[in-house]
Amino acid sequence: MAFKDDTPRLEIVDLALIDPDIHHVRKNINDDALKGLVNAVRQLGLIHPIIVRPAGGNRYQVIAGERRRLAALQAGETTVPVIVRTCSDDEALEVRVFENIGLGVRSALEPREMANAIQAIAARFETPEEAAQYFGRAPTWLTQATAAANLSEKVSALLDSGKISSTSTAVQIEKLARKNEAKAESLIEQIEQLPEGEKVSRKVVDNVLSGESGRSRKSEEPTVLPVEAETAASPSGTPSSATEIPPWDELPPETPAATAQPPSPLAKVSPNKIKLVAELLGLSEEDEEALLARLIDEFLATRNS
Question: Does the domain made of 9-100 have the CATH classification 3.90.1530.10?
Answer without folding.
Answer: yes
